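Researcher: Let's try something more involved. This one mixes different molecule types, so please make sure each is placed in the same coordinate frame as the others.
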Amino acid sequence: VTDAGVLDSRESRNKLLEQLSRFPPARLAIACDPRRSPDRGSLALLAELARNAGATRIWLLQAAPGQALDAERLGDWHEALDRLGLPHADTSPLTWLEHGHD
Amino acid sequence: MAMTEPLKLAVVGHTNVGKTSLLRTLTRDVGFGEVSHRPSTTRHVEGARLSVDGEPLLELYDTPGLEDAIALLDYLERLERPGERLDGPARLARFLQGSEARQRFEQEAKVLRQLLASNAGLYVIDAREPVLAKYRDELEVLASCGKPLLPVLNFVASSQHREPEWREALARLGLHALVRFDSVAPPEDGERRLYESLALLLEDARPALQRLIDDQQAQRQARHHSGKRLIAELLLDCAACRRSVVAEPAAEAKAIEALRQDVRQREQRCVEALLKLYAFRREDAHASDLPLLDGRWGDDLFNPETLKLLGVRLGSGVAAGAAAGAGVDLLVGGLTLGAAALAGAIAGGALQTARNYGSRLMGKLKGQRELTVDDTVLRLLALRQQQLMVALDNRGHAAQDSIRLGELDEKAWREGKLPEALIKARAHPQWSTLNPGARVNQAERQEQLEALVLQI
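Model: All components are placed in one shared frame. Result:
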């Protein structure tokens, strides 16, 4: 399992996409902060990353202790990810990454 | 210098940051556009015009949210041919002529076209968001339009806002002027500050913006006065209301219920008039923390719990009656059922009452009792309506959640002596529209009404 880093800027996105296209991973887990809005740009990036991996899972991070996620926004994320056909959960997919099963 | 053309402003920003909400608040139009938690709710450019004395001064254009600025900036940079250096507007012109402006970046193209056609842009920021690269790229794309941009920090009323981070990031991009404007709980002078900041960026537009500022100030004051008048009318109507009932239990019970119903309805009319005055619809009162439920008070006026809730002391009517020597008064849950002949004495002095009723009428009242609205209910009405007015005044026209109601400290209305005008009204049943034969245009009533307005 390799940590592919944090995708923030255009540069980091392009670098990772290039790496993935050269060495496509069997399994890819992407952690997303569902407090952000699931905008077209973010969803396009997720779709593009997923195209470069054998299997992809989205990990929707839980709220920090003492905070709550906006239920409506979380619903928007679920809907958008379902539309893209990307499986998602709010728990760490580390076991799956290592072994290919839960 | 007078402007011949209205100033055009494009309201731009990332998706879901509250652009439409800002427009609703600035235009005081709760029906403007569509607002939801979903990304890209606004798909087209929509405009609204603000006029003063029939002269259009400002046009505001709502635009779709930017959603993919990182990819767009990447694309824009690749539009330059080898050895070529285009400036921002030239690069955008090439992009807008190309096919991607109709396909992948259709939404972004709409925004940029509108900003190019405007005098300036208001860049709305959700100040709760961290300063991400996508926002910086967004600002870079927008800045390439060559139009002044005024960042507007929305949601600064939230405890989770990151204003310092945003200020620093904006300064690094050369944007030093910015305004804080929470579209849900706009600061009292929010609009003035916004227009003043714009005047710094657009010197030519200063006179028009100043007129807008002055006009809005005047409107706000006028609304304030009208609102107080509506409340004063309600209080006077209820204080002056007086109904005589045959001294017989079944008739009394019926009259009590009828009067309660009339007072409830009268209060509801005041609520609706206030909502209308502040340009809110009845359904907007729902799902908000205006002190209303679906545009009406959730707590019944005649429920003793409601009195406790607002801290009104019970029984002041009994005390007043006892002091006037009317020991026979019964308090029937917010209403006072008194002996008819003594009723005036409780309220406004025996002589005055006798004059007002006339001796013939006084005779008629024998064997009857008088039903009036108790002082505690008047206090409750005064407090509730003033609370509503404060809430409406502080509320932005952005139908979302979270606005905190300031504790209304109206000790005078809670336990002090009721205003003179209301005490006088007790002896003038013809001042109340709840009574048959009301004469609301009487000079003395108008005089007392104006006096009451000053005490609200």
